[in-house]
Design a protein that fits this description.
With 529 residues, this protein is of the alpha/beta class. It has 2 domains: 319 residues, TIM Barrel, CATH 3.20.20; 157 residues, no CATH class. It is 45% helix and 11% strand. Strands 1, 2, 3, 4, 5, 6, 7, 8 and 9 form a 9-stranded parallel sheet that branches. The radius of gyration is 24 Å and the shape is globular. About 5% of the residues have low confidence.
């Protein structure tokens, strides 16, 4: 195991029962706290969601994560393998980063040895671009251009495909559950046939009839279906027709209760719910992480889920938005596709995993600021004052840039000011232990500053005052940023080594820098390539 993985994902304390590490930054073996201290109404399912749509982790890193989660007292992993799964009969779906079947079997056995149940997540309705991009499955599309969703009225072909995919998952995973997705079906009722059914019978009936078919396939395999609850909550009229074995997940990333619909009304029908907060979600991306939002999400939602009688909790962690841009050929034939939004890899978010474990430990709401101070002391050997500084750094305003401009009335100079102040504070912090983990905070902040300086330069290029005489000066400024980004790339690669595959590291660096490089090329010209 590489040092970067070990320092970040070593089996760790539960709820901050931590022994200090050695002076070189490597932690010593750590004590684990008894789950007997958990609240009486502890969730039966305490899980974490791994999103492998992009940023596919090495098997070594996955095992290290399982060690970490077991140490935190979690007992469930929801694996959204997507195209990294080694499908047997539908091998067309698997991509170049797919694990082998032997690797998946070994990983599941490893997790089970730690007391972790591994639930596969196999999308079967929306978010299936990775399936529908292939000609083999093109007849299942709801729309020939927007390939995120299957047509739910092609029952025979749909059921044949997912009977095979679910059976494949069941043959490899010993869990009692299969997560069948079902969220964000944006095209529900889109094609002429679906539109007619939605108009005559309702969108709820259209959705439920299809998901009932999928649930029954899972039940026939001896498993319990799990599904995201957002669409059912929006269109609940036919909800009672779903099999009683189905479990619904209310995902809430910081919005008001019942954001999607009346959960209590479905619970009154006897439906079982799990809850899902998030440690990475919109609008997080490579250039900004909404730390305070995620801490507060845990503070607010986990006590609510416990009080609402949810029997499980699954912390989600999204590598991307689940939306894609496409390169099309004639007739909208997909040549290639690329995700919209890339978040910083999971390797940088151990602090939010630890706070999740802390929030599960007690019935009282998490105190994020106090937690960060304790974490800074126990994990990094920082002082109490340093812990307060770390909180201030993590909670700088996560202002967004929209269409090349600050989303608020602030200028770029005003957006950069708190970042520069945070960078100055960061320089004063000298962690004693787990230095590589701490370096993720530094790198995220430096990437944020570099990004804002680029966007400021880009705004000059788009200004009405920009003329031909300004090209050389702007190009020179961009060349300075390009020199800086090479060092950022090197730091990113070092911290992700062994955690992500080398090709994924290179891809993430390329995506992060692409707009900068394209603008520089536009300004300087290049007729040789």
């Amino acid at each position: 195991m590489t040092d970067s993985i070990r320092n970040f994902l070593l089996p760790a304390f539960v709820m901050l029962a931590l022994l200090p590490g050695c002076s070189n930054g490597t932690p010593q073996p750590q004590l684990q706290e008894s789950l007997a201290e958990a609240p009486e109404n502890q969730f039966a399912v305490r899980g974490f969601h791994v999103d492998l749509r992009i940023q596919v982790m090495t098997m070594e890193a996955l095992k290290a994560l399982a060690d970490e989660l077991a140490g935190f007292g979690l007992n469930t992993l929801v694996m959204e393998w997507e195209a990294s799964y080694p499908y047997l009969n539908n091998a067309t779906i698997s991509n170049e980063l797919a694990y082998t079947r032997e690797e998946v079997k070994e990983f599941i056995a490893y997790c089970e040895g730690l007391g972790i149940d591994v639930i596969p997540l196999q999308q079967c309705f929306g978010h299936v671009e990775y399936i529908l991009r292939h000609d083999r499955y093109s007849e299942l599309k709801e729309d020939r251009k927007e390939i995120s969703q299957l047509c739910p009225l092609k029952e025979e072909a749909d059921s044949l495909l997912f009977a095979d995919l679910f059976a494949d998952m069941a043959s490899m995973h010993n869990s009692d559950y299969i997560h069948i997705g079902g969220d964000e079906t944006y095209l529900l009722g889109h094609c002429p046939a679906c539109s007619l059914k939605a108009a005559t019978e309702g969108k709820s009936k259209l959705f439920v009839d299809y998901m009932k078919m999928m649930c029954n396939i899972v039940i026939d395999l001896g498993k319990k279906p799990v599904m995201w609850a957002d669409i059912l909550l929006k269109y609940p009229e036919a909800a009672s027709e779903l099999p009683k074995e189905t479990i619904f997940i209310d995902w809430n990333y910081g919005w008001k209760t019942n954001y999607f619909g009346d959960i209590a009304a479905l619970q009154a029908q006897g439906m079982e719910f799990w809850g899902s907060p998030a440690i990475r979600s919109h609008p997080d991306n490579s250039y900004v992480t909404c730390w305070e939002k995620h801490f507060n999400n845990q503070r607010d939602f986990i006590p609510y889920a416990r009080e609402a009688g949810y029997t499980g909790i699954i912390m989600t962690s999204w590598s991307t938005s689940g939306l894609y841009g496409f390169t099309w050929d004639v007739n909208y034939e997909v040549t290639d596709m690329e995700q919209i939004r890339n978040t910083y890899p999971l390797s940088g978010f151990r602090i939010l995993l630890a706070s999740y474990a802390e929030a599960l430990k007690t019935s009282d709401p998490l105190d994020p600021e106090a937690f960060v101070a304790r974490y800074a002391a126990d994990r990094f050997g920082l002082t109490e004052a340093d812990g307060k500084l770390l909180w201030e750094i993590l909670t700088i305003p996560p202002e967004l840039v929209v269409n090349g401009k600050p989303a608020t009335s602030a200028s770029f100079a005003e957006m950069r000011r708190p970042v520069e102040e945070a960078m100055a504070k960061m320089k004063s912090l000298k962690p004693i232990y787990n230095r590589d983990e701490f370096e993720h905070f530094r790198l995220m902040l430096d990437i944020r500053d570099h990004y804002l300086r680029f966007r400021e330069a880009e705004a000059r290029f788009n200004s009405p005052d920009f003329g031909a005489d300004d090209r050389d000066a702007l190009a020179a400024d961009l060349e300075g940023l390009i020199r800086e980004t090479k060092e950022l790339d090197r730091r990113f690669a070092r911290l992700q080594k062994g955690f992500l595959h080398e090709s994924e590291i290179a891809q993430q660096n390329m995506i992060r820098n692409r707009k900068l490089m394209l603008l520089h090329r536009r300004l300087t010209g290049n007729r040789e390539v």
